[in-house]
Amino acid sequence: MTRKALFMMGVAVLVPATARAQSASSGTGGEAARPAPAPQADQPQAQIDDIIVQARRFDESQQNVPLAISTVTPDRLRNAVVSSTDDVQRLVPNLRINQTTTGQLDFIIRGSFAGFGVDPSVVSYIDDVPQDSRVIVYGLFDLASVQELKGPQGTLFGRNSTGGAMLFNSQRPKLDGVGGYADVRIGNLAERRFEGALNIPLTSKLAFRVAGELERRDGTFESATQPGLQYDNRHNQAVRGSLLWRPNSVIENYTQATYYRANEHRSPFVAVSLAGPCTGPTTPAAACLFQPPFSTILGTDNLRAYYNQQAQLPFGRTVNSDPVADLQRRDSITNTLTVSLGKITLKDTTYYGRTGSFITRDYDGTPARVVDGSIDDDIRTFYNEFQAYGKAWQDRITLQAGVVYSRDRGRTINYQSVFPFPVSLVTPSLATSRTDFRSTGVYGQAEVDLSRYIPGLSVIAGYRYTWDDRNVATTAFSGVPGRVCALQVLPVPASGAVPFPNTTLADCTRRLKVNYSDDNYNFTLQWKPASRVLLYAAARKGYKTGSFNVIAIDPALAEYQPETVHDIEIGMKADWKIGTIPFRLNAAIFRAKYDNVQTSLTLVDPASGAVTAVTINQDRVTGLSNKATIKGFEVELTVIPTPGLQLTGFYSKIDAKYDRFFTISPRLNLKGQDVGGVTPETAGVSGELNLPISGSTKFSATANYYWRAAPSTNSASQLTAFPGLSYSQLDARVGLSDLFTPGLTIAIFGKNLTDKRDVLSNNIVSGEVTNRYTEPRTYGLDLSFRF
Fold it and tell me: Is the pTM of this model over 0.85?
């Protein structure tokens, strides 16, 4: 029996089950709903509380938004033992979060495309401001909600996107009293995690809130060749201070400052297999040059010895000795001024921040210097958005409009050493790129209530136009023993140096500049045939700018074009009752047609072995654009059958195929083949039980099961990676709340109870296969106090 069939059977069992649960919701400002007390005979029957979202920039019920949204509330985050952002993908449908070897978090909604160094298809926001995804890895503290918006965005706020948006909303200061919380978690692998917040009203019109988190944990892998070096450890901390000033009913000013640091060793590449025997210097692979007898002749490291050593080690230990550093930082300040003028509200958000990232990589998984590299980023961002929204025509028209401007000034240093030899023109290489990216957008959207003509009917029309300016200056040197400018034809012809286009050899700098512009639109019909039922159909267009492969040396690969998508979505949101049992069913079907698909390829130069990750979206021979169609559906179900129990489940399915896609080396047309790396199916089931014991003390238990199918592959992706496997995870948490004193909770938890390890395999090093693994089983104790 398939997992899909098992899931649907599980849903059928959940509906008539005999229990009821706390319903999680967040209100204005994002406060989590408190557990509902057990109903008495004179209390109303169970119902599913509304979840309040800000998907359209004002507080409203999620069930009233004609857009597929999945929301995770603070209670759900805590009960699911969520500690890092990639845990969120286990709680909502059609979301995959991948952390790349550069530290970037790729949020992939409905198979949307992601790539190295490109603008994200799914834009991640912290309190209305787009953020570099690398500084959101541990940003899940003192949150009001996490909202997943699916499909093209941009006609309502922020930056334009083709895949969706992730909204991370922090708790705001409150004027109505002192409050806060403190959470302490201890667990195996010597885990120590603290999270807390304190809210202080300074006056009746001014309130301050400070929140923070600190985490330390040992690694899940240990180096056998570098004593004391552990991988996949936790060493991060963050502090957020915010100030709310509300002098009257017209003006509100909210200021927030954030400090974030992570200093960790990422999950290592572990050596798995090595080509051999080597009967010739390139037979059967370039890795033969790092094995006897050629390693002795050429003076290279001996891979074979390290692989033999790795084969004798138990799981959890590696011969790798590279630190695989992952250093992230963010310092920022945001100010939001809101002016309420009756039916019109004006809002201005200004942000300035500096983010930094330093990542090292060791693809061969051994102390041998075969394929190593590092990326050092420093980015300064200024962002401003002015919005106006309000009502007109006797409140039958809702209008929203805005202007947004952003500027990112960055510096990237990329070091790479690939198959190093005593004399080489291409390795090691050092490229420094300075970028200046600017974006300006104007948008507007109107919703017209047509209920006077057709009860429950309304129409929405939105439009956005965006101008993007990209400037890059790159300096690149390579070779030993003396370095040479890499931005020229090598080896240098006898007739003299031939620089690449737009390159000045005097300082070995290539300067590139490009301007792109395009529009987004949204046209939606929505109909409410009943007070708790919403039907909608939407047609949208998304646009994502083109740019440069800032570390690519080959001039033919320097630039890539904008990506666009035309999307259709039909959905339903309904709250029903079967007898006295309430349930909520949200479902959507969709189809997205992508043009100029931006996706990354890893290229290995057959002559030098140089490895380059580049983004392409057109065939280098014909100039034809790459195209793809992604279609599918998703279902979310919530049931509250009886006092004390809440049951939820979701299922999503995606079919993603290339309509036309040309790879580079070798040149293949993947037309009709699956889009590589897409997760075709996901499913999840969870239950939350809350029962009174004595007095105010309550017993709670939560269990979450998540499953995803094996990623799709095609004839090109199989050249650099083995097909992935399906993966499932079971988590649980059991606790007692209001124990001894109101607000005190003690709980035990377990994550990945079945101890399954997801595996990412690759053979990017010719002749080698290495693996990376996800976290093992973890467990521990939670102690929290709320006041």
Answer: yes
